[in-house]
Amino acid sequence: MRVVVTGASGNVGTSLLRALDGEAAVTSVLGLARRRPELELAKTTWASADVAADDLAGHFRGADVVVHLAWLIQPSHDPFAMWRTNVVGTERVLTAASQAGVGALVCASSVGAYSPGPKDRPVDETWPTHGVTTSAYSRDKAYQERLLDLFERDHPGVRVVRLRPALTFKRVAASEIRRFFLGPLVPGSLARADAIPVVPKVKRLRTQAVHADDVAQAYRLAVVGDARGPFNLAAEPVLDADTLAGLLHARPVRVPAGLLKAGAAATWRLHLQPVSPGWLGLALQSPLLDAGRAAAELGWRPRRSAVEALQELLAGLRERAGADTPPLDPQAGGPLRLGEFRTGVGGGA
Q1: Distance between CA 326 and CA 123 in Å, rounded?
Q2: What residues contact residue 307 under an 8 Å CB cut-off, 6+ apart?
Q3: d(Cα 36, Cα 25) in Å, to the nearest integer?
Q4: Secondary element (H or E) of residue 288
Q5: Mean pLDDT of 287-302
Q6: Contact between 174 and 320 (Cβ < 8 Å)
Q7: In what order do the strands lie in the sheet with 167-169?
Q8: Is 21 helix (H, G, I), strand (E, B) or coil?
Q9: What is the pLDDT of residues 140-188, one digit of tens each?
Q10: I want to staple 285 with a disulfide (CB 3.0 to 4.6 A). Which of 92, 116, 165, 313 is the partner?
Q11: Nearest one of 167, 211, 193 to 318, comparing CA atoms
């Protein structure tokens, strides 16, 4: 079985390449990335390709399965750049897969595709996927879902799988996550116990997480199996301010959601941190996920808890962990993180 993976050099992509490397049914993997990484694996060869601009059908030709992971969440101050990769890029991947005669497509969707939902119970894959309108990321994910709907309608012979994971962490992704979500002004040392005295506790700020290696196993199962349709991916327990406060030895303090939103908006507009206020709205409105279908039909069960995934991320932040790919490179921000300042915090991918 020959597999092509777009966005193969990132958080989930590098875990997936390792999972496929150990899968007997997979004979070769072509990893596509905008910048060729140094990571070497026995079954993987690399090619440089931008899903929004370069020829893809040539790379897809002869593939049994294409896994589409390529996605941008920065630059948050340039939503058109993100749309070009996320939506136009997905459309080009689907067109190329059709032209190349690919038999199966496994696509990275997200909890962010879902419409606002409950925080006191999990929802299954039938919950509407119209996104949270205040979040550019969520709008892009919802639009991607509609593209997949049309592709499935027009290509019934192609097996299409959509994986919708919760927040996805691993230790070596910490440098990338720090750049994308915290920015150059936040030192990784703040992730240690006793460094932060308080953690804001906001109503409905409850979320889920899953380890990237566990997500990769779900992708592997989707690649080699015969499953179709959407699958939620999340580990227990649900994470909230009390959980984070316990890990950091901090005290949870109730804060009105409006105050947190105002602070996020002001610091983002001033380029002090890279996360647009839409992300907070997404965190407050996105539903909790029921991963029962993945267990029943894929045979997937996470090996690590959500707390363990979060602990790995915090350890990686403290240690400035990274890997040998451009997105995960701990030096990607440049000396003293000057590159992040030079492009504008939240202004460069």
Answers
A1: 35
A2: 237, 239, 243, 247
A3: 26
A4: strand 288-289
A5: 98
A6: yes
A7: 167-169, 207-211, 235-239
A8: helix
A9: 999 999 999 999 999 999 999 999 999 999 999 999 999 999 999 999 9
A10: 116
A11: 193
**299, 159 Cβ separation under 8 angstroms:** no
User: 79-82: long-range contacts (C-beta < 8 A, 24 or more apart)?
Assistant: 79/136, 81/349, 82/136, 82/137, 82/140
- Is the pTM higher than 0.85? The answer reads yes
| Mean pLDDT confidence for 195-206 | 95
Read off the DSSP letter of residue 191. Answer: G
Cα 48 to its chain centre, rounded Å, is 20
The tokens describing 253, both together, are 């303090």
**Residues present in the chain in total:** 349
**Comparing C-alpha atoms, which of 155, 143, 149 is closest to residue 100?**
155
* Phi then psi dihedrals of residue 31, to 5 deg: -95, 125
Q: How far apart are CA 285 and CA 128, in angstroms?
A: 13
Residue 130 structure tokens: 């119209």
Tell me the chain's radius of gyration from C-alpha atoms. 19
pLDDT class of 348 with cuts at 50, 70, 90:
low
**Structural tokens at position 118:** 């409950």
Whose tokens are 């006191």? That residue is 120
Residue position matching structure tokens 């012979």 = 157
The residue with tokens 């206020």 is 277
Give the separation between CA 81 and CA 74, rounded to whole angstroms.
8
The answer to whether 325 and 10 are in contact (CB under 8 A) is yes
d(CA 98, CA 105): 10
* 4 backbone dihedrals φ, ψ, rounded to 5°: -115, 135
Q: What tokens were used for 43?
A: 């079954």
